[in-house]
Amino acid sequence: MNMEKLHKLSLNTRNLYPENKESPIHFLHDTNTPTHLKFIRNHFSYPYPPETNISIFISGHVQKSILFTLADICKYPIRTVHCVLECAGNKRSFFRPKVYGEQWENGAISQGKWSGVSLRDLLLCTGINRNANEVVFKGRDKGVKKKRVVHFERSLPIKKALHKDTIVAFKYNGKPISYKAGGPIRLIVPQWYGMASVKWLSEITVIKNKFNGQFQSEDYMYYPLPPNHANVKPVTSINVNSIIQSPINYATLSSSKHLIKGIAWTGEGVVKSVRVSVDEGQTWQTAYLNKSTNTESYTWVQWSLLWHFKRKGHYVILVQAEDSYGRFQPESALWNRKGYGYNEITKAFINIE
């Protein structure tokens, strides 16, 4: 898409305080989402920008605590990760029965190239004690939850924190990360939902126990219905999913050939196949996967199917993606009280006249 058309697009506002906005995902066909069209997800108001040197402090169950300035971080080998970033509540508005929370449709997702340094390199510098279990990340954003002031904090298992592609990022698509996108320094955790990629990163603490912060053990948990603590589990890797970008839902089209297209992605492995039905699931056709848009394991893949709609009337288009681990979009999403991880078979309703 050329720049003139991109500048005509805008974000769809879900909330102003805190600011939450969706990307116009149906009209984004490039492999990188421009900064001004990247979705915005906040839990609190924006923190004040740092007035002094930008830095992060690493402490806890380490051999030595170190304050890393941005200049220090930039001395380490630069690593670029091209990945999908999706809010865990993306598509929440489609759950039935409805659930409370930001009523995201399809646009709480974006993709781009994040550059920074492997968190592993910084932790190897501080040294990690042998019985370390998790790494806690603290953002500078804070607000009131349950009558107390809390920062946005999340933890990762030590194995995930030490993965080479878990990075402390300071650039997005080759430019400094914007303030609204969590800059100047933020965490990026490929293949996990966006809550793991803590913005406005200020502190990193290695711990030997389990972290039980507000956004770790209360929010971002799958709570089934009826409440059953035995079935409660944390939100982690992204579910296999897809979006129909064209035709637009409830579009009216002429009786002729039309290109059905969209994107598919997953948090485990890669998307292996996408199949499409135009007769409400009675028959399925295999879509073409544009592998050039999925050259790295963390990115979405563009898919398409040319179909001749000969008969006038109403159609329901169904799309089901499957990944290399055998996970596929279910006929019914796993309902949960907070509305996370919706990945039901994707639908679009169209009229042919």
From TrEMBL:
Residues 235-343 form the Moybdenum cofactor oxidoreductase dimerisation domain. Its cofactor is Mo-molybdopterin. Keywords: Metal-binding, Molybdenum, Oxidoreductase. One of its GO terms (molecular function) is molybdenum ion binding. InterPro entries: Ig_E-set, MoCF_OxRdtse_dimer, Mopterin_OxRdtase_euk, OxRdtase_Mopterin-bd_dom, OxRdtase_Mopterin-bd_sf. CDD domains: SO_family_Moco_dimer (cd02110). One of its GO terms (biological process) is sulfur compound metabolic process. It comes from the Bacteria. This is Oxidoreductase molybdopterin binding protein. The lineage of its organism: Bacteria, Bacillati, Bacillota, Bacilli, Bacillales.
